[in-house]
């Protein structure tokens, strides 16, 4: 399987953006009234949208050559579930322990959670116990759809994705996903468009036409995504909505960013910094754990004391928050997530062997 370091670098940027976005809320809660982080950090909540686009891109990468093979479809689903659940359950039980001891510390302002549905990451109308896990419900839905798509011919994937996109576009132009049950809200939500456009970007990446695109055009696409693309998103404050315009514009901008970086990397015109690549490797652990870590640092700030008329304490504790989140991410990834993933991968290789056709598939 082709490893694209730019994708991991983008994951690293996405998760650091989400952390920064949540740091603003922690600062507002514990700083004593003065704040250092500006309001525009709200933009960085779009890190989740970038995750969805990258997820669609990666799904095309890891399923190439595996269509219409029942064993490989089973292995794909096993790999996806083993990537999501074990690491998530660790932070579910940590949060549950806190909830059982101090219920007011966990989602008290959101009316509580359904523990069983939270544990299984199933759609429900209440906030999940691990609040950031809402995006995982969408990821699981995307994985299920892609597993079903593996039953068709691989050359038909572009048309299948187009049909899925047309259904979502048509529905969201005529109706609102908010008026339906919790499960249908996931199925009909335009977030699916970001996954689809990420998949489409990967199909373009592997098409024979991608090699014909001049380097100058790729650089232009990258600059347009980072410049006018981001500016439009910020101007219309699409990060504060959940409607169709956000999913279409943000999805297209992030897909252009992802595709241009991937092609520039393939041509060895860019190299992603190792720090971002490693941060991307442990982005899932950081994503799941960062609210817990931020809460601990925030309470320490409250106990030690804040200076409402000075920003020195804000700067100190904001830096401490980011360092603590990253350092715990390294610990959690190195000593739990990666060992679990390695063991699951070895089991998947033994359990889901390719049919006796001479094909060989790398672990994913």
UniProtKB/TrEMBL annotation:
Transmembrane segments: 12-31, 43-67, 88-106, 126-150, 157-174, 186-205, 217-238, 244-264, 284-304, 316-336
One family name in Pfam for this protein: Acyl_transf_3
Record keywords, A-Z: Membrane, Transmembrane, Transmembrane helix
Residue span, Acyltransferase domain: 5-325
InterPro entries: Acyl_transf_3_dom, Acyltransferase_3
Protein's name according to its UniProt entry: Exopolysaccharide production protein ExoZ
GO cellular component, as recorded: membrane
GO molecular function: acyltransferase activity, transferring groups other than amino-acyl groups
Biological process per Gene Ontology, one example term: polysaccharide biosynthetic process
The keyword Protein transport belongs to this UniProt entry's keyword annotation: no
Coiled-coil annotated residue ranges, if any: none
